[in-house]
Design goal:
The complex is a heterodimer of chains A (118) and B (94).
Chain A lengths: L2 E6 L8 H14 L3 E6 L22 H6 L8 E4 H6 L12 E3 L1 H9 L3 E4 L1
Parallel strand pairs in A: 1-2, 1-5, 2-3, 3-4
Chain B lengths: L4 E5 L6 H10 L5 E4 L21 E3 H6 L9 E2 L1 H10 L2 E5 L1
Parallel strand pairs in B: 1-2, 1-5, 2-3, 3-4
The chains are: A alpha/beta (118), B alpha/beta (94).
């Protein structure tokens, strides 16, 4: 398996799922695998800027997110309708993202050898 | 092997958005397999949501949950393995 699409559907901090998706993406990159991230549903909240989880005793995910481009993980796709239903726009997010509609989603699924829902 | 995807769904009607993402992600030639709590989607009440897609249902999980009047064909564990082999990739929607 050489190319991985990692799908995340959870908001950050409420569970470990968002962190695990990031860790998986970085692990794939460390092994020189092509990797992309797709954010669906509440996962779009992962890219709100200005996280500060110190008061809830958790590590800030922003540092990990900002390290993604350093590991050449620069393909971050985001569900257009998930953004819209939550009143968000791509310009307000912490990393550059590519919005996808259902047609784009179909193409994404066919572009990767392994697809992992985290 | 055709360039198709097996979409495995193991969550029920509690998570309607998950089914919608799966349906949006489907291309022609893809197959849906309903397992675990996903089998509840096979009840007649939800059949229209799948439009032209014909999901398969893991028999043991439907039997275990007492769901009868399934709208779709059931498969056993051996068929599950064959489905995985027949498709280029499989994705678990969970």
């Amino acid at each position: 398996m050489n190319s991985f699409l990692i799908i995340s559907r959870c908001a950050p901090y409420g569970s470990a799922a968002a962190r695990e998706a990031l860790e998986l993406a970085l692990a794939c990159a460390l092994f020189d695998r092509e990797v992309a991230i797709l954010l669906l549903d509440d996962a779009v909240y992962q890219l709100l800027p200005d996280h500060n989880p110190s008061a809830i005793g958790q590590k800030n995910l922003a540092a990990m997110q900002q390290s993604l481009p350093l590991y050449d993980v620069d393909k971050i796709f985001i569900c257009q309708s998930s953004l819209e239903t939550r009143g968000l726009v791509t310009e307000a997010l912490a990393l550059p993202v590519t919005p996808v509609d259902p047609q784009g989603l179909k193409a994404l699924m066919r572009g990767y050898e392994a697809i992992i829902n985290v | 092997m055709s360039d198709s995807t097996l979409h495995i769904l193991n969550r029920g009607p509690n998570q309607p958005d998950l089914l919608q993402h799966l349906l949006d992600a489907m291309s022609e030639g893809d197959q849906i397999l309903l397992i675990e709590d996903g089998i509840y989607w096979a009840s007649e009440h939800f059949a229209e949501r799948f439009l032209l897609a014909r999901p398969k249902v893991l028999a043991a999980d439907a039997e275990a949950r007492g769901l009868t009047n399934l709208s779709f064909e059931t498969v056993d564990d051996g068929d599950f393995v064959e489905l995985c082999v027949e498709h280029r990739r499989s994705v678990s929607w969970c």
